[in-house]
Write a structure and sequence with these properties.
The protein has 215 residues and is an alpha/beta fold. The chain is built from eight helices and seven strands, in the order βαβαβαβαβαβααβα. Helix 5 packs parallel to helix 8. The model has no long low-confidence stretch (mean pLDDT 93).
């Protein structure tokens, strides 16, 4: 697939330590789109210098809202495939090639499967999605979507799903899903889930909402 048709959405909050290197590596595979979610450091400036398209929120709006913004920008730029990538360095950008290959082979959605999870709630959510749709790691921040899937739902997230609503929608509607296992690297800085207690609460809430969501 032509690099110009792949939008790589990177939500970022105070990721000045890693953002430039992530962008430079990702740029080999697509168009990096950084959503600066109210950073108080120079994340946005460093992202622009590294060659990314940058959209900034005036305040911190949260992970899902950042991805909503990034997907809208990717569509504006004409992306046919949109891939989400964390800014903290946990996802090796070289994995992007594997995700693109799966899309080229006919997948509508490609979901990353991490080799380890940090929270009990993550394992519970994964058990639930695997039981019903075969999704092994719904909370992995690295996923790829054909733009048509996003347009069919009409948004990326509507209830604070921690990046899971669109993937679950695709599974429910019978789109072709593939999964790519990989090893995660140690992150720098705080997790996007926050503290252990807060993170587990967010995950359980997202799982409960997904159970009753009708799309």
């Amino acid at each position: 697939m032509d690099r110009s048709k792949v939008g790589i959405v990177i939500p970022a909050l105070n990721e000045s330590a890693t953002i430039a290197s992530v962008i430079k590596a990702a740029a080999e595979y697509g168009v990096p789109i950084v959503v600066d979610d109210g950073s108080t450091d120079n994340t946005a400036e460093l992202a622009r210098q590294a060659g990314a398209t940058v959209v900034s929120h005036d305040k911190n709006c949260g992970y899902d809202m950042a991805l909503n913004t990034g997907f809208k920008k990717a569509v504006e730029l004409g992306s046919e495939v949109i891939i989400t990538l964390d800014a903290d360095g946990q996802h090796n950008p070289m994995l992007l090639q594997k995700f693109i290959e799966q899309i080229d082979a006919g997948a509508d959605v490609v979901i990353g499967v991490r080799n380890k999870r940090q929270r009990i709630a993550e394992s519970l959510f994964a058990w639930y999605t695997f039981r019903f749709w075969g999704i092994q790691d719904p909370l992995c921040g690295m996923k790829a979507y054909r733009t048509k899937v996003y347009k069919a739902l009409g948004h990326f997230d509507s209830y604070g799903s921690i990046g899971t609503e669109l993937a679950i929608f695709a599974a429910r509607k019978g789109y072709n899903l593939e999964q790519v296992p990989f090893d995660v690297s140690a992150r720098e800085g705080q997790s996007r889930f926050g503290s252990a207690l807060k993170g587990n609460y967010k995950i359980i809430r997202a799982m409960i909402f997904s159970m009753w969501r009708v799309n």
